[in-house]
Design a protein that fits this description.
163 residues, Peptide Deformylase, five-stranded antiparallel β-sheet, two-stranded antiparallel ribbon, 7 strands, binds zinc ion
Length: 163
């Protein structure tokens, strides 16, 4: 199976993804391919819906962090404190915007064997986790922007992608 990143306009990006129920070789293969694709495109995170799979899992690899896999993630807690940071998305290539998000997050997820783990993340990694988790609920980073900013970013993206 050859995976490709789907972009804005593809319905799968707007679906609420379903739980992963089977932890098998196929899942492992998909995850491995997602890492390849993410690195190729110089991304720091990639969620299953972005490769056309409406299931609840994503991968991350922040600059000074190890590769991580989150399956059936649950955001347990987020900090009151928020912070603004620049985000882009492989499904909206070429545009970036400042998004306000909680500074830290506590997440529960399963690994490739189905084992549950917990992780406390802050700063950049927290931002990536929250961005990728949004994908599992059909949300894109532009949905977190004030409406006028969102319109501007989307129209810029559409101009670029139709050249
Ligand atoms: Zn994204």
């Amino acid at each position: 199976m050859d995976l490709n990143v789907v972009t804005l306009g593809n319905e799968v990006l707007r679906e609420k993804a379903k739980e992963v129920e089977t932890f098998d070789q196929a899942l492992e293969d998909t995850v491995r391919q997602m890492f390849v694709l993410m690195r190729e495109k110089k991304g720091v995170g990639l969620a299953a819906p972005q490769v056309g799979i409406s299931r609840r899992f994503f991968v991350t690899e922040a600059a000074d962090d190890k590769p991580r896999v989150f399956i059936n993630p649950e955001i347990i807690e987020t900090s009151q404190e928020t912070v603004k940071g620049e985000e882009g998305c492989l499904s909206l290539p070429g545009v970036w915007a400042d998004v306000v998000r909680p500074y830290s997050v506590r997440v529960q997820a399963q690994d490739l064997t189905g084992k549950i783990f917990h992780l406390n993340a802050e700063g950049w990694l927290a931002r990536i986790i929250l961005h990728e988790n949004d994908h599992l609920n059909g949300l894109l980073f532009v949905d977190r922007l004030p409406q006028n900013v969102k319109n501007k970013v989307i129209s810029k993206y559409e101009k670029m992608s139709h050249n």
